[in-house]
Amino acid sequence: MTIALERLQALGLQLPSPTMAIANYLPYQIVEHEIYVSGQLPLRDGQVVYQGLLGDELTVAEGYQAARLCALSALGQIASAAGSLENIQIIRVGGFVASAAGFTEQSQVLNGASDLLVAVLGERGRHARVAVGVAALPRNAAVEVEIMARIIAGTD
Amino acid sequence: MTIALERLQALGLQLPSPTMAIANYLPYQIVEHEIYVSGQLPLRDGQVVYQGLLGDELTVAEGYQAARLCALSALGQIASAAGSLENIQIIRVGGFVASAAGFTEQSQVLNGASDLLVAVLGERGRHARVAVGVAALPRNAAVEVEIMARIIAGTD
Amino acid sequence: MTIALERLQALGLQLPSPTMAIANYLPYQIVEHEIYVSGQLPLRDGQVVYQGLLGDELTVAEGYQAARLCALSALGQIASAAGSLENIQIIRVGGFVASAAGFTEQSQVLNGASDLLVAVLGERGRHARVAVGVAALPRNAAVEVEIMARIIAGTD
Question: CA of B40: which chain C residue's CA is closest?
């Protein structure tokens, strides 16, 4: 078992089966060494498990868990694209938090994604990030996370 | 006439004249083989033809048409940048849907863009995608679509 | 003093000290020649100086200044990443404007960022852009700006 998968197991997590292409877009697109993962929702067994607005129906702690779940789905897509997580560098994370008026803790919510990426990939999990609060998300998801990663030579 | 232009014609569409640079930004930026198209609004003859919020003033069917029109504008920009649509691979679509509280069908709206890209470019039209619901868009547009594409060798 | 720094000085501006990494994400990520700068807030001395919603608490003129300040912070990050601003081409600007219902002048607000980039970098400051209106931003910032730039050979 590879280092990244051992770390996931130590966290009590496993990579979800990557969801299939829906409609005319792809779960991810690869260009040379770069992987563009489509926006991931906080899914478990195909269901959106965190729904509604932060600052209204959900707490920051719940939003953190939602963002973590989005990042876990993205790791599943990246592993599917690259064949492994051992040679992956995360480049950019785009985080969208469904936010009630006046909710301004999008950074704290998105830390759920950033923390998981670093817990699993170590230094290669660090990334540039943009975090914003949006009016609503598909399927009433609380958080959506988009990731751009790169396949690099060598391992951890 | 090329394959992509024939497909457009069969859909009863033609590429719009690319809009000019407005202010200090560009309609697109090329870096090596990659084309970054600026956010496109649902324009016809320079007018935003779908205005207002989904889930309030506009139906999903109207939003779908708006997203399609944004993608058509983007194809016009890409053709202008690359000289042709024959050697284009779509990489990433960022879709922003002006959304009233509680509107969560952003994916269905953005399918208007994704479906057009695949109808015109075939497999090369498939892409990674992020779809979110925003509070408001420039010029009261209902949808805004940003596209990143790549010029590849060879044809369809 | 380099051309870009002279232009900044002529504008009465100086590059801010780049803010440090917060949590598990980076202020910027470099991949080969490309620099992905994390979303920048309108900071001065570490404080968010433009807070609240455009179209409610803030005027377009204030939003323009906020976007300019975000771009200045991004230039600070880019200079830190590349060692200089002389060999920088701006590729893409993502602009997020905290917007009250019905506010649709996000483009005018974001011109504050675009105008500064061109004032400092000349033609190399022009870029593709996406501008949207969001529900809320971290730390109640009025504007957040994300920039992707490229290190190119040669100078102005």
Answer: C130
Distance CA A99, CA A102 (A): 8
Residue A37 is nearest to which of B101, B125, B128, comparing CB atoms? B128
Q: What is the ipTM of this complex?
A: 0.94
Residues in chain B: 156
Amino acid at residue number C108: Q
Name the burial class of residue B55, with classes exposed (0-12), middle (13-18) and buried (19+) by CB atoms within 10 angstroms of its CB: buried
Question: Whose CA is closest to B106, among A110, A149, A136, A77?
Answer: A136
Of B93, B151, B150, nearest to B127 (Cα)? B93
CB pairs under 8 A between A and B: 87
pTM: 0.96
Partner residues linked to B34 by β-bridges: B31, B150
Task: In chain B, count H helices and then E strands.
Answer: 3, 7
Which residues in chain A have their CB less than 8 angstroms from residue B127's CB? 25-26, 29
Q: Which residues pair with B36 in a beta bridge?
A: B29, B148
Q: How many CB pairs under 8 A join A and C?
A: 87
Compute the nearest-CA separation of B43 from chain A (Å): 23
Closest residue of C to B36, CA-based? C128
Determine, for residues A25 and B126 on separate chains, whether the beta-carbon distance falls below 8 Å: yes
Strand partners, B88: B151
Domains and CATH numbers, chain B: 3-12+29-151 (3.30.1330.40)
Taking CB atoms and an 8 Å limit, are C136 and A103 in contact across chains?
yes
Distance CA A96, CA A38 (A): 13
Structure confidence at residue B155 as a pLDDT band (50, 70, 90): very low
For residue range C82-133, list pLDDT tens digits in order: 999 999 999 999 999 999 999 999 999 999 999 999 999 999 999 999 999 9
Interface touch A25/B103, C-beta < 8 Å: no
Identify which of C96, C95, C93 has the alpha carbon closest to the alpha carbon of residue C78: C93
Paired strand residues for A31: A34
Neighbours of B30 (CB within 10 A): 15
Q: Which residues pair with B30 in a beta bridge?
A: B35
Cβ proximity of C39 and C151 under 8 Å: no
Length of chain A: 156
Locate all alpha helices (DSSP H) within B1-147, ordered by sequence: 3-10, 60-82, 106-121
Q: Which residues of B touch A142 (CB under 8 A)?
A: none
Chain B partners within 8 Å of A28 (Cβ): 128
Q: Considering CB atoms only, which of B91, B129, B134 is closest to A39?
A: B129
Phi, psi of C122 (to 5 degrees): 65, -145
Q: What is the pLDDT of residues B27-50, one digit of tens each?
A: 999 999 999 999 999 999 889 999
Partner residue facing C26 (CB), from A99, A126, A134: A126
